[in-house]
Amino acid sequence: MFTMCQPLRSKANLVMLFKGYRRFVRTTCRVSIPGGSLGNELKAPPRFLRDKKIVPDADPPHKEDIHKLYQLFEQSKRLTILTGAGISTECGIPDYRSPNGAYSSGFKPITHQEFTRSSRSRRRYWARSYAGWRRFAAAQPGPAHTALASLERAGRIDCIITQNVDRLHHRAGSDPLELHGTVYTVMCLDCGFSFPRDLFQDQLKALNPKWAEALESIDHGEPGSEKTFGMKQRPDGDIEIDEKFWEEGFNIPVCEKCQGVLKPDVIFFGDNIPKERATQAMEAAKQSDAFLVLGSSLMTMSAFRLVRAAHEAGAMTAIVNIGVTRADDIVPLKISARVGEILPRVLDVGPLGVPAV
User: Which sites bind NAD(+) (predicted)?
Assistant: First the structure.
């Protein structure tokens, strides 16, 4: 899917389509529309995901905005999509920067330097990640993921780049370029050996049988007791663990090949995206005639530079996101809406050659 692009046709039509157009919608209410045009029933997320108030409020998509997006899909020949955390909050996975995001509760993500330099930090990270994995992995693709997979199969999308590490695009049927990696793979920092996260979870369970028992206790309504090692479910779905239990009592597997340090195959804050992957994403951006951002504030430079490169190359750029983004000053089309509400409505506007899912 990510191949060198052929010379582009004129981008003038797309540029004229959105010239001088910018719409900002103040968010005030919550509406959820699954989108019947996709031809399938979306699997309902678990209750603990549905109940979490992690998605910012938003007005229903404006009809004019829906038609503008439809025209973008209809007229572009090389459309690149960049997705961010906003597409996954609708599936129950918290983001960082929205009003209800992880930062709002004082959460600070681990940095690459902390993970690599401190065994204590690694123990804390893996203890919390092990405890929260089952719930994280229970998330299902939303209407936005499904709509994008349909548009991709119909040939309306040239490539999808995602900042997310949750593999929800894959579950919906897409095969995106994962800019920041994925938590579904674990890798060795010393020899590069990698293997599936599920196998790592089994290793953690074998090394920490009392922790596995503690997680079952949480599910059965005994949070915070000594039996649960001080684990308490936080409102955003994370697991709060008393420091005295994980600091010395949690065992971490080592690499089976070289006994090295194991890390999730994701780009932590302070780390760099592999050069080949960054080049691949940049080429896709520069070769596009339209670049659409979905659910991202673009606050990381790795994402912002892609939009900027597409804009400078003459592509039409557009953003669908609730809240301010780093690229608001350079994009001609900005829509404040939930991605999972507006994309299904775009498919309802007219024929885009989208097959039933």
Answer: 163-166, 295-297, 321-323, 339
3-state helix, strand, coil in the chain (%, to 5): 40, 15, 45
The verdict on whether residue 297 carries a ligand-binding annotation is yes
User: Is residue 258 a known part of a binding site?
Assistant: yes
- Topology of domain 12-93+142-179+275-349, CATH: Rossmann fold (3.40.50)
Give how far the C-alpha of residue 120 lies from the chain's centroid of Cα atoms, to the nearest Å.
28
What is the domain partition of the chain in residue ranges? 12-93+142-179+275-349, 104-137+185-266
Tell whether pTM > 0.85. Answer: no
Catalytic positions are 180
Is 331 labelled as part of a ligand binding site?
no
Tens-level pLDDT at each residue, the chain (357 residues): 433 343 344 455 554 455 444 443 333 222 222 233 333 333 444 443 444 455 667 788 999 999 999 999 999 999 999 999 999 888 888 755 444 444 444 557 789 999 999 999 999 899 888 888 888 888 899 999 999 999 999 999 999 999 999 999 999 999 999 999 999 999 999 999 999 999 999 999 999 998 888 777 765 555 445 555 666 544 344 566 666 665 667 899 999 999 999 999 999 989 999 999 999 999 999 999 999 999 999 999 999 999 999 999 999 999 999 999 999 999 999 999 999 999 999 999 887 766 554
The DSSP code for 228 is G
Cα 150 from Cα 357, distance rounded (Å): 7
